[in-house]
Amino acid sequence: MQTRRVKYAFWLVGIIAALLIVWYLWLSKGTPPGQPALRSLTQNNLDLFKHDFNSSAGDEVRLVLLLSPT
């Protein structure tokens, strides 16, 4: 009887962890106040990205993070 409760507790923890991961990765797409919204980089908006990236102030640190599913 005790092992059955432990098994259900592990399942419950696993389901809650999976739901939290899904929420974090797909449902919380907001950005902090003052930061532009996140965008996907495509051929259509590459020139706009280059302009925005190069027009920032000279002493600011800039970072480009490229993520790929493969």
Describe the structure in your own words:
- The mean pLDDT is 83.
- This protein has two helices and no strands.
- The longest helix is centred in the first third of the chain and has 26 residues, at 2-27.
- It has one domain.
- By secondary structure, the protein is mainly alpha-helical.
- The termini are far apart.
- Helices cover 50% and strands 0% of the residues.
- It has helices at 2-27, 46-54.
Q: Which segments are poorly predicted (pLDDT under 50) over 5 or more consecutive residues?
A: none
Which secondary-structure class do the elements indicate? mainly alpha
Order of helices and strands: HH
| Share of residues in helices | 40-55%
Straight-line distance between termini: 44 Å
Give me the count of strands: 0
Radius of gyration: 21 Å
Tally of individual domains: 1
Number of helices: 2
Instruction: Name the overall outline.
Output: elongated
Beta content comes to under 5%
Main sheet makeup: none
Residue-averaged pLDDT, rounded? 83
